[in-house]
Amino acid sequence: GIRVPEDVSLTGYDALPEGELVRPRLTTVDQALDWQLRTALDLLCHPTFPTVVHSHIAVPTLVRGGSVAPPLS
Q1: What is the dihedral of CA 16, 22, 26, 30, to 10 degrees?
Q2: Reduced 3-state DSSP string for the chain
Q3: What is the pLDDT of residues 45-70, one digit of tens each?
Q4: What is the average pLDDT across 19-43?
Q5: Do the Cβ atoms of 61 and 30 come closer than 8 Å?
Q6: Nearest residue to 12 via CA among 70, 69, 64, 59
Q7: In what order do the strands lie in the sheet with 11-13?
Q8: Whole-angstrom distance, CA of residue 8 vs CA of residue 68
Q9: What φ, ψ does residue 42 adopt, rounded to 5°?
């Protein structure tokens, strides 16, 4: 008997595809996991060791669905 988002807001993490299948669609945090994996593999598969330090930063984004509502205050 609990309604989303009227009674409770619900947020997921990792932007899993299953969040697209529920109603209301799940609001989620997308941490760009595909990009992180591709970047790590590119670095690991490089034929030579890098001569300089490289930094790669993944910035998570909020993917808005219908599962959250503003505070009631």
Answers
A1: 20
A2: CCCCCCCCCCEEECCCHHHHCCCCCCEEEECCHHHHHHHHHHHHCCCCCCCCCCCCCCCCEEECCCCCCCCCC
A3: 988 877 888 788 999 999 999 999 98
A4: 91
A5: yes
A6: 64
A7: 11-13, 27-30, 61-63
A8: 8
A9: -60, -45
Q: Which residue has the tokens 């947020």?
A: 11
Q: Report how far residue 62's alpha carbon sits from residue 29's, in angstroms, rounded to the nearest whole number.
A: 5
Length of the chain, please? 73
pLDDT at 25: 92
Query: Per the structure block, which two tokens stand in for 29?
Result: 């945090």
Contact 27, 63 (CB under 8 A): yes
Checking DSSP bridges between strand 27-30 and strand 11-13, what pairing results, if any?
parallel
Query: Shortest CA distance to 65 belongs to which of 32, 31, 16?
Result: 16
